[in-house]
Structures are given as C-alpha cells and as structure tokens.
Amino acid sequence: MEYNIVHNEAESRFETQIEGLTSLVDYKKRENLFLVTHTEVPPQLEGRGIAAALTKTLLDYIRENGFKVRPVCPYTKAYIQRHPEYNDIVAGHEG
Q1: Fold type of domain 6-89
Q2: DSSP symbol at 95
Q3: What's residue 92's pLDDT?
Q4: What is the pTM (predicted TM-score) of this model?
Q5: Could you tell me the residue ranges of all domains in the chain?
Q6: What HEC string does 5-34 produce?
Q7: What is the DSSP letter of 88?
Q8: Which of 30, 15, 12 is nearest to 4 (CA)?
Q9: How confident is the model at residue 95 (pLDDT cuts 50, 70, 90)?
Q10: 92 has which bridge partners?
Q11: Beta partners for 39?
C-alpha cells in the first residue's frame, strides 16, 4: 500500500497521517549522519506495513542525498538486517 509520507524537517521526522493518526520515524541529524532514534505506529494501525514504508522512505532519502545512517531504533536496525541493500549507507559498516 502507498502512504503519503512527508519529511517534516522542522520536527526531524518522516511521518504519515492515516485515519487521523500520526505514524512516524524520528531522527537526529549531525552533519551528514542521521541517527534514527524512534519508530512509532499507533496500535490500531499496526500490521499494515506503515513502519516499513516510513523506514524505506527515510533510508532512500538518506541514500539519495549522500548521507549515512546510524540506526539506534531497534525497528530500523531490524529493517536494515532484513534489507541488506541498505548496508552501504550504514555509518561504520564494514561490508
């Protein structure tokens, strides 16, 4: 499913509104590094692939803009493990 994901730079997050509820991935940007700190999907929206869509959008943005990612968030770490095509943008990854 396609979601209308917005990069809310003022709040340092990627987010989407579904059924009046906000799902998001928070980050902290330090120079060319994105520290991904938190992924949140309201319980009533879980199981729809929203977190995966948000994370993919974030990682694609990081790659397209020549940045690196350091996943602190457990969901983001697990997503990258399941999608090794993103290993090249992980900060400090030897691969």
Answers
A1: Aminopeptidase (3.40.630)
A2: -
A3: 83
A4: 0.94
A5: 6-89
A6: CEEEHHHCEEEEEECCEEEEEEEEEECCEE
A7: G
A8: 15
A9: very low
A10: none
A11: 25
